[in-house]
Amino acid sequence: MWAITEISSNTIIIMSNIIDLKKGLDIPISGEAALEAKGTVVPDIVAVKPTDFKGFTPRLLVKEGDRVLAGSPVLADKRNPDIILTSPVSGTVQEVVRGDKRKLLAILVKTDTVSEAVDFGSGIPSDAEGVKALLLRSGLWPSIVQRPYGTIADPASTPKSIFISTFSTAPLSADTEFVFKDDIEAIQDAVTSLAKIAKVVVCVKEGGKLFAKLENAKVFTIRGKKHPAGNVGVQISHIDPIKKGETVWTVSPVALAAFGRLLRTGKLSLARKVAVTGPAAIAPAYVEALPGTPVKAFKAFYDNTTEELRFVGGDVLTGENLGEEGFLGFFDNQLTLLREGRERELLGWAKPFRFNQFSTSKAYFSWLLPKKKYKMDTNTHGGVRAFVCSDVYGKVLPMDIFPVYLIKACLAGDIDKMEQFGIYEVLPEDLALCEFVDPSKNDIQAIISDGIDLMIKEMA
Question: Is omega for the bond preceding 148 within 30 degrees of 0, making it cis?
């Protein structure tokens, strides 16, 4: 069901506040976090990672040995010095981590026993410029993502709308109603503030109660529980599609709650409930943690295994492989633990009597067990093959685009075709399910990412 109809370039009439999505796929993976909080992870070291933000070119504002407070600037964007990243804790800068060609990967801050914070002043700013200024000074501005392309929003511009998806349908994703039940008043303040910049659109799941009564925003109900119904890109495509020359900003619930707490207390607080999930996790549950927390701080959830594990910041479809030596990303409120699947199986396609393997095409008889959860690992069960043209992508992607043609246009680097087939409407995460069901085993998210990078380069 389309929610809007355009009758001129500047006039849009809302036809319904219910979006009915039928396409999609739920991946039946085991390891969902129980709705209980198991304390707080208190790390000795916290990382600030500029790599979490697309389009951020970091410039150091601190050096090793400097003391910082929660909210102190540590990095600035070379292109726009007003856009900064701030420390989530108080402490001492212990190390500046660099990679190949001296690329700045992270700043490690050794935390104080008792955290101190910069006081930015409480209260909702009176106008849009005041809201922008507070977000910039506090270091929360990079959490606003601009579409198309998924880069940091331009503070000098005004979007046609600001979208907030209040739920996620990704595999084993955190239950936002449980995670943010104590932050709803702060979230309301954040929505009220953002509404001073542009119209705010909030998307809630059908039956959800926590976010359904948010004020100063247009609330849409998403009727459809299959992934990717919770993706903000899918919601934008059905409510207010992006055309060439237009921009839409998106804000995650994690960033929204942090902004709301800043408005209420005047201090930066990035703490969030993190869902520790996955087939390799011990007693999956929620813990209170900060972005930049070391993966090793979650050792209680995996310390009983001798198997090689993959530590994914986020969900299994779109998350980042952090490694045991890595750190949670800024947007992460989920850590997924999986066994590395390196074994090879001879003639696996010819063995249909397998009830422990999931198949979207019903190639195995496991489809007779629709409620079964599978202990999936990282094995892709095959390598890259010839690109097969079929409707397999269209069955799981509830967007009005042509995914096969868009992917091929990205592979060919054909900008005109990329525009024609929907590059402005998607980010790699929106086609993650296409990658999962792809019989050719193509790395579709990487292909879309490369296409977006080409668009940024050529259209700048």
Answer: yes
Find residue 272's DSSP bridge partners: 289
> Tokens at residue 309, please?
């594990």
CA–CA separation, 175 and 275 (whole Å):
8
- Three-class secondary structure of residue 64 per DSSP: coil
Determine the length of the chain: 460
Task: Write the CA distances from 295 to 103, 170, 214, 281, 315, integer angstroms.
Answer: 22, 21, 34, 13, 15
Give the closest residue to 230 by CA, choosing from 193, 176, 268, 277.
176
**DSSP SS3 for 102:** helix
Name every residue whose Cβ is closer than 8 Å to that of residue 415 and which is 6 or more positions away in sequence: 454, 455, 458, 459
Q: Which of 113, 128, 227, 223 is nearest to 170 (CA)?
A: 227
Per the listing, tokens 């910039």 go with 136
Separation CA 394–CA 421 (nearest Å): 14
* SS3 category, 68: strand
Quick one: tokens of 331? 């947007």
Going by C-alpha positions, the residue among 58, 55, 48, 128 that lies closest to residue 90 is: 48
Token pair belonging to 267: 């201090």
Q: Which of 345, 425, 297 is nearest to 288 (CA)?
A: 297
* pLDDT tens by residue, 273-328: 999 999 999 999 999 999 999 999 999 999 877 789 999 999 999 999 999 999 99
Distance CA 304, CA 306 (A): 7
Residues with Cβ within 8 Å of residue 443, at least 6 apart in sequence: 384, 435
Answer yes or no: pTM beyond 0.85: yes
Which structure tokens are listed for 380?
Answer: 């892709």
> For residue 287, what is the enclosing H or E element?
strand 285-289
Contact 441, 382 (CB under 8 A): yes
Q: Whole-angstrom Cα distance, residue 389 to residue 225?
A: 27
- Alpha-carbon 64 to chain mean position: 30
Task: Render the burial of 90-107: b for 16+ CB within 10 Å, e for the rest.
Answer: bbebbeeeeeeeeebbbb
> In the chain, what's the furthest Cα-to-Cα distance?
66
342-353 pLDDT, tens per residue? 877 766 666 666
SS3 188: helix
Query: Cα torsion for 107, 112, 114, 115, to the nearest 10°?
Result: -20
